[in-house]
Design goal:
Elements lengths: L1 H10 L6 E5 L6 H6 L4 E4 L1 H9 L1 H16 L3 E5 L4 H8 L5 E3 L12 H6 L3
Parallel strand pairs: 1-2, 2-3, 3-4
Length: 118
């Protein structure tokens, strides 16, 4: 309850919280039901599975649609190509993350990353 209260206090100041790596380890439905996250980040393993199996695509897509209907933003990680990008856009994506857009940027280079022309 203390964590939930602190999250809510920070949300009122504009801070956004996301559940990282949904679908793995401790990032599960219980966390979503008990803590007020803003964004659900689907783990790369779910993105990969959704690209290789129609059944997995249906499961991931339906879960993402439920989250979107409940006003969560949906973030997919592990986007490396246009096909995966388009698939995730079709599965209620609010945000996409992956090597298609950028490799990890060291913190010292971050200001340059945001000012460079694309």
């Amino acid at each position: 309850m203390i964590v939930k209260t602190r999250i809510e206090e920070l949300q009122h100041t504009g801070v956004k919280f996301y559940l990282d790596d949904f679908g793995t380890g401790y990032s599960n439905m219980e966390r979503i039901m008990t803590l007020p996250f803003d964004i659900i980040k689907f783990d790369r393993s779910l993105v990969n599975a959704s690209c290789t199996s129609e059944r997995s695509r249906e499961i991931v897509g339906r879960l993402a649609a439920i989250f979107a209907d409940l006003d969560y933003a949906v973030l997919y990680e592990g986007i490396e190509d246009t096909d995966t990008e388009q698939q995730c856009i079709g599965m209620s994506a609010s945000y996409l993350q992956g090597f298609k857009y950028s490799k990890p940027v060291p913190i010292d280079n971050l200001s340059h990353f945001f000012t460079k022309e694309q």
